[in-house]
Amino acid sequence: MLKKIIFQFLALSLIFTYSAQSAESGGMPQLNPEFWISQIFWLVLTFGLLFIILSKFILPKISNNLETRKSQILENIETADKQREETEKKVKEFDKIINDTKVEAKNFFNSERQKVLDDINNKRLSLEKDIEKEIIKAEEEIDQFKKTSQEKITKIAIETSSDLVKKLIGEDINKSSLSAIVEDLSKKEMEKHNGI
Amino acid sequence: MAANPMYQFNVYRIGPEIKINNIDISFTNASLFMIISSLAILIIFNLGTKRSIIPNKIQLLAELSYSFISKMISDTAGSKAKPYFSFIFSLFMFVLFCNMFGMIPYSFTVTSHIIVTFVLAAFIFIGVTIIGFIKHGLGYLKLFVPSGVPMVLLPLIVVIEIISYLSRPISLSVRLFANMMAGHTMMKVFGGFVVSLGIVGGWLPLGFSVALTGLEILVAFLQAYVFAILTCIYLNDALNLHH
Questions:
Q1: What is the reported pLDDT for A26?
Q2: Which residue of A has its CA nearest to B83?
């Protein structure tokens, strides 16, 4: 095929030679067929070698590189997606755990507070009861004491006054009249005391 | 007098004359720049094959151009064109690197020679035609008969289609060759103006020259792209017969 072209050009070149040689002075070195065959030979050689080396060794490598990069990028995107999903899940779990613990803590706190409050209430109630009892007892004691003390006082007053009268006058006085007097006096005194 | 602007396209022998059966296949400056371009491609893309998940700069360059061309092929020729990926990749890179190395001052632009671009285009043309006949058999000839054309116009249309199909290698090769040659000639001419006008008047052509260099780098990329995408379109015609 190429030989055909070469021979065609050989034939063509014969035709061109005259015109080219006449044009040589004007200068179109492209139409000078002297080195046509040489140019064709070297073109076929260099371009052929270039084509063979590129197509056999270099281009497959480049396309391979592009393919592996593409697939690797796709893989990476896939794993990234997976990992993102996982992290989202984990975050959700984490949130859930935190919420649960919050609720639990609140519940625990509430129940404990309730317990403490109940305890305090109970203790206060029992204490109040005790105190009331004590107060009542004390009041009773005081009342009794009041009563007994008055009687004792009147008794002591009667005795002392009778003793005094005996020492002053030297004779016994009727105890009943004396006691009436003392009672009267102490009553007045008490009224005075209580009247304020 | 400024140097001849066409002088830069001269091909000359480097080293001894090599002859096989009276056919001259000597090593020339064109061969040198073909080898330099190919080696540059191989070195850069070989450095770009390191297996690292996060690419370094060269690897990124290699992978970006890989996906750029693979997208270009799948956009224009569909998924059926995948087996031809490495050919179109090599083609694009070869043309691009030859164009770009041609932008270095005092270097040689391989693609500014019609014979080089024509051989590439002819190879593509013949290859695409063979692929078309293998895939569709004689049905591939339906390519010349567009559907929905009135019967009266059909003979004319078929002739036009055949001519346009046969002119594909010429248009493909001349487009690249003419673009590269015209651009380099123009830069040379403006460079010659800078020298001949000297320090007084040389500034304007110098500015033009700088602007043209930017434009030429763009053209160098664009023509490589156009060359590759037209190959894809021709391949698309052969693989997916639409008509």
A1: 54
A2: A55
